[in-house]
Structures are given as structure tokens and as C-alpha cells.
Amino acid sequence: MPAPPTPASISAAGSCWMDSVRRRRTDCAAVCASTRPAASCAWRWCTPCARPGGTSRANSSRWGSIASTRCELRLALALLAVVLLPLPGWAQDGVGTQEPDDPSAEDIAGDLAEDGVVDPNGSAAADAGDDAPQGAAGPGAPGNGPGDSRALGMSADELRDALAIGHWVRVKGQLDRLGWFVAQELEIRQPEGEEVLIGKVGLVVKRVDRFRVFGLPIHVTERTNMQGIDWDGLRGARVKVEGHYRGPSKFSAREVTPRPGGGRDRIEGRVDAIERRGEALVLRIMAFEVLLPADALIESEDLITSLGLAPAPDVLLPPVQRDDPENYIPISIALTETLGLGIQIESKEAHERNFDLDRDKPGNKRQAQLSAKAQLVWQPSADGFALARFRWDRGRVRDQDDPNTSFRDGDVSELYGYLRQPFGGGVDLQVGRQDFDDPREWIYDENLDAVRVHVLRQDFRLELSSSTRLTESSRANRETDNWIAYLSNDDVERHLAAWVVDRRRSGEERSKPLHAGVRMLGQWLPQQSVWAELSAVRGYEEGVDLRGWAVDLGTTWDLEPYYVTLGFAHGSGDDDPFDDVDTSHRQTGLHDNNGRFGGVTSFKYYGEVLEPELSNLDVYTAGLGMRVGRRSSLDLVLHKYRLVETYQLPPGSTASSPLLNSSLRARPDGIHDDLGWEADLVLGSRELKDWDLELVLGWFSPGDAFPGADPAWVWRTQLRYRF
Fold it and tell me: Domains of the chain by range and CATH?
């Protein structure tokens, strides 16, 4: 039997591996032969090496298949990172002190020790021959190149596609200076009872029995077993922490052991969310955002079909997924064991120029606003939770038409209780003021006082609700009762849905519009994200029968790092606005028409200046976007507008304008159908953890429908920070 590998041979193999990565190949037999006897090469570093007895080593190219992870930021975003200072405590917690790099020979040796293959002194573990995952493929099988997988019968792409929410994973890699955990290797495993962290200890606060690893507070109790290390030796030490993740501000440690020497950082736990970013994946594991590059090694402990899914964690987090990520506030401050707090600060500024399309008239407007949002979540058990969200606004409006005004405002934007299956049968109940939001905000984006039932099944999700707005709203909204049904396949990537919104208004202006539609969203075509909306409106409004319809079609091609968008939207018009039948389409009145193409930030996809309702209107859209860095994007979007029907309104007429609910203060002449065109430039960045930056520039050039009109433009900035 050959001698077990020594630290020197491991170091030589590591050098061999590093050389192979630089050359993008794994053939290092010559290096192996020149650095140590052939018998000592019977290990897992090089493709040509074989185990004693002639059996090929299953994971022979494990390290050779990991490509270097590079952090590439454009100059503008680097300058932005300088302006927006890093979060307090990063340096002292050891977060972001260096960029992820290829693992060194010492890292590899440390990994072996942590995996139980060799101890820190270089001696072989008794079970070293069983180190390879059972589903691993041999040197000649698929899965031995950079970015490939090691799973029996599955390619790297197949294994990535099979990775699902609920899988238990072990991730090795490194935190970068932006707070991302950049994975170099991921292994899918059978679910286990405890999460694991391996990394350097940052802040230590003995008086409250806490310390931090990767910035996550580790709680030490009487049930914690600290082996081989005490509080005096914790600061700066590399440790392995096993325990239970209780939320973004608490990890209950059950065992803490030192991990001296090298080795890569590691997190192990349940995948709670998956987001595709081009060829890379972004996973949420506990409190961490894990970036899994396309060239990272991915493997499975066994056949992936035999690996179970871990149940959803019982942690202090609101379980309702929001369709608008910009409205998400994480619960980062634990007030008690069951009560958590999240805070968001937002600064917005908008400059509107010439919205009356006449530069000779005063009409410019500037608004600056500072907002604070606080969200409380109380989760006494896994059977339900309560959520309260408060908002305070302060700002100033400078309008050339009116005197300058300042304002202060505050409201309760959300206040509800959520019960999981109170009556059994997979039916959840949500009662109170709550957020109604759909992926494109084409149907609704509104906070309503509602009773909502969520019917959850394996193949579909049904939401039924009755709602209104009791306070802090217009009289029309307070007098309107909404009955909403939304049936979907509950699939984010390939979304199918049918919906109904029945709005009944009482009082003097009685109306009963009934909106219904179907939609298809997501990755229905290769390398494309499509949307297809079809809706109709029936019922009556102020004695006029409604008979309108609309369609909105489009797709975004992903040409990493670029993406191209084409779209067309049509809202029917009315050729006779003075009869008792209105054939123009109306949107629900709860809509916002706000969404993303291929970038990281949302915007008004029918135009930032015109911002019309889809009624009596054709909108042609073309967009070109580019990903800049990991989570930043730049979009250039062009729109062309045409009226479907043209008509002139006599003075004092109560009929609707040909252009319904536009942001412009000017009206079309009713003779020409060419409204004009618009160009919008949108920059969004999420590069810094917990920071959002949005910059919007919109320009509208009026057409023949606005004779003698001048262009209008808008400039908006928005900066958001979540505590």
C-alpha cells in the first residue's frame, strides 16, 4: 500500500492544480511525476492519477474543475462604492476584507482536514477512500471539466436545473467585500438537523454571550458545547459552528470547535430561494446571498432523485413572498424571541419639465422626499404571524403653478394577520390591510383592507379576496368594494394565471366594471423571458356599458451581458364616445404598470414621462439593456404611441379624453393619432448589500396629436437603504 499523502505532497498537488487552472486544463501528470513518486500521486488532484489497485479516483478532477472566480466592476460602480460607504462593522467582522480567489494549497489541505480525509498534521483518515460522493462520476464520465458536476448520469446544466428550493447544500467559497458569499464548490446533500458555518470570528461580545461569523450573530447558551476554545481565544479564530438558524439576527450555537490552519469558508443549510442571473445562480441560504458562478463545481452526495427536501425553517421571517423586491424589508433586528423589526430609509427626488408641452408657460415641478419605513413581524409559532408596516414621509414640492409647499405625512401601509391552514386542507387565511401586488403590476399594486384566502395545492395556487380601503384614501376608493380571484400554476419561472377583478362602487357615481384576463410570463422560449397579457372589461360605469379589451405581448432575449426587448400593447378604443356603449379598454384602477425587463430595477414600462393607462392606445416598445457587474444594469427603452380612435370633445363634455390618465397636462387635439415617441434611460444598482440605487431620465417628443407642442422630460433619483 502506498504511503499516505504528506503535507509536502499535498502542497505539491496544490501547486499542480493551480497551474492547471491557469492553463484551463487538468493534465498535470508531468508535474506530479516531477514532484513526488508515482505512488503518492494516487490521490484526487490530477485526471491521470489513479487509486492503488488501478481503480480510477471518482473525484480526480475535483479541484481542477474549479475555475477562478473574478469580481469585475465597471469604473462607474467602483466610484459609487466609494461614495456609498461600506456598512459599519464589516472590517471588524472579517467581512469583505479580500476578493474571492482560487483556493491555495493550504486551503485545499484545510478542506481535507475538515472533510475528515486527513487531520491537520497530514495523516490519512480511516475513511479517506470513501471521501467521494456516491453519485460521483469517474474521469471518463461527464462532469470532469471546469464548471461541471459530479453526479451519476447528470451533466452540470442538468444538476443546476435540478437544484430546487428545499435542497440541503454544503457551499465552500469566500465572502467578498460586498457581502456576497461567492461559491467555488457546492454539494447537494441529504437534509441534516443542524446548519453549519466555518469561518473567521469577528466581533466578540462576551457580556451578552454572542460573537459573529460572516457578520451573523452567534448566540451561545448553556446548551452550547465549546470544545477546545474559550471566549478569550475566539476573537479572530477560525471556527466551526453547528446549530440552528433562527433568523437574520440569531444563530443558536450547539457546538463550537476551532479550525486552525487553512481551508475555505463554508456554509451549510437549506436553499430558501433561487434567482437566475444569466448563467449564474443567486441562492439564499440562511441570511446569506450565495453567488454560484457558471464555472463553479456542483455535485451531489447521491442520486439527486433520492435526496429529500428540507422543510421550510421556523424562523422569524414573513413567509409571504412579495412580487416587488423593491418593497421588501428584511427583519434584521430581533426585539424578542418572537418579535422582529426591519427598517428602510428612502430618498427620492423628481424633476418634471414642461409636462404641459409649452415651454413658455410655467409648469415645471420639483419634488424631494425622505421616507422612513418600519416593519414589525410577530411570529409566535409556525402556525401564523402578524405584520405591521408604518411609513413616515417628509418633503417639499416646488411647482411653478403653485406656491412652494412642504409636507409631512404618515400612515399604516400594512397591518394584517396570517394563519396557516386554520381549518386544514391547505387553506391559509390573511386578514387586515395588506399588499396586493402582481409580477408586472398590470393588474394591481395597492394596499387594501381585505380578507384573503390562499388555497395552496401542489399544482396550483388560488387567491380569493374581498377588499376595500377604509381610511387614508380617496372617497372613490372608500366607496368601492373589490372582489378578486387569482388562479395560477404557482411557478415563478413559467407562470400561467387567470384572474378576475370585480369592482363595485356605491354612492352617487355607481359603477360595476368587471375585469378578467389570462397571462403567461417567464421562460417559455430558450434564452427569453416572455410576457403575454390578455384582458377584457365588462359591466357598466355611470350608466354606460363597458365592452373593452386589451393585449400586451413582448419578450426579452438574454444575450449575456446584454438583453434585447421587443413589445407591443394594444388597448381598444371607442369610435363613438357619446353613445351608451364604451368599447375602450380600462385597466383595473389598482394597477401601476411597473416592472423589469432584464435588469435589476423596475420602471414604468409604458413610459416614464407619458405614463399612460392602456386605453385607446397602441404602444410599440424596443429596449436594449446591459448588465454591469453582478447586480447592476443599464436600460435604454424606446416607445412609440398611437391613438386607436380619434375624436374631439365639445366644451363641457363629460366623455373621456382620447388619452386616458396620462401624466401630461396637455390633451391631444382629437384629430391626429400620432402621439409621439419617448426614450427612457434607467440605471439600477444593487451592488452594495442592503443598498438600492435608481436613476431615471425620460424624454417625450410630442407628435402631430399635439400641434406646436414642445418636448417634456423627467429626471428621477432614488436611494434606498435597509437596516
Answer: 325-722 (2.40.160.100)
